[in-house]
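Practice problem. Given the sequence and the SMILES for adenosine-5'-triphosphate, write out the predicted structure.
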Amino acid sequence: MSDVPTLEIDHLDKSYGSVRALRDMTFDVHGGEIFGFVGSNGAGKTTTMRITLGVLAADAGEVRWDGRPVDLDVRRRIGYMPEERGLYPKMKVGEQLVYLARLHGMSTSEARAATEHWTELLGVAARRDDEVQKLSLGNQQRVQLAAALVTHPEILVLDEPFSGLDPVAVDVMSGVLRERAEAGVPVIFSSHQLELVERLCDRVGIIRDGTTVAVGTIDDLRTTPTQRWLVDGPPSGGGGGVDEGGGTGGADGDGERAPGWALALPGVTVVSTDGPRTVLELAPDAADGAEQAVLRAALDAGPVREFTRVRPSLVDLYRDVVAATGADDEPGDEGDASDHAAGGTGAAA
Ligand SMILES: Nc1ncnc2c1ncn2[C@@H]1O[C@H](COP(=O)(O)OP(=O)(O)OP(=O)(O)O)[C@@H](O)[C@H]1O
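Answer key:
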């Protein structure tokens, strides 16, 4: 990636009075990739983005684009969607976008063409003559994204662009971000919608207490010495169930009985049991093919409908990373984190 222009966030520190908002915040985003920035409320996402934009100064550290410190000229080439939004409510959508583009030095005809292009792509062309305040919040957000794009930015920095959007708007916005990334633009956005981040992003940065605690592709972050397997097969009744705590492998916290066929397997731990669905973890030093013994044991006890490697979702990874570092809260809007709560088993790949 060395020949690809890169936005480097390099060892940023920032305090607001006695509040240490950023400490050694470091990561980079390459041209052409979508980078998801996730972390608890107050973790420092907005502060990092504001410093990148130059609307806030860091106490220490530097932001570079293509190897050089970000100066006013580069900042003008960043498309920014601030968390607090920032459109003029009484101004008409089209006039506002043309005005913003003109402020960036575009000619009137260029500004109009860009306004038409982005309002059409974002599905708000029919609202160009309406005041911003008359639009629904989701449509205002589409206009806000159009405002970030109308100047043909080389870098996109978007603070929670998806919050509050309906699924169709999420798809529209995702498509636009993907298209911009494919055109070579680095796209960085913050979100608490972890499923969306997992689906859309090439790489993810998980931050906590003002610092990055994990950065990489979802697959990089999934690197773990243990393997988990889901068996949809004989339940506890079918294979001689054992009460929680009564066998070698344990069971989930709901007190469901783990199937006996699983508990009898050496080097295998029962992670969770949900009726006929059992998730097992192989010991880190399990031999190649150890999962075949699991499958055989299950088949000996009864029919198996599904046998799948379980790969942790971003929600699971987030929980592991943030819990391991002792966070006391986690992203909570849209109910996405709780969707995965059962057993902490993650999504089957
Ligand atoms: N203007 C400010 N004055 C004082 N403290 C601030 C200010 N802005 C942010 N902070 C504090 O800095 C820390 C980081 O806040 P920041 O807004 O960057 O977090 P965030 O990750 O964007 O959070 P959220 O997900 O809730 O938007 C928090 O402790 C916050 O209370």
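Check your answer against the key. Residues 16, 19, 21, 39, 41-47, 83 surround adenosine-5'-triphosphate (CB under 6 Å).
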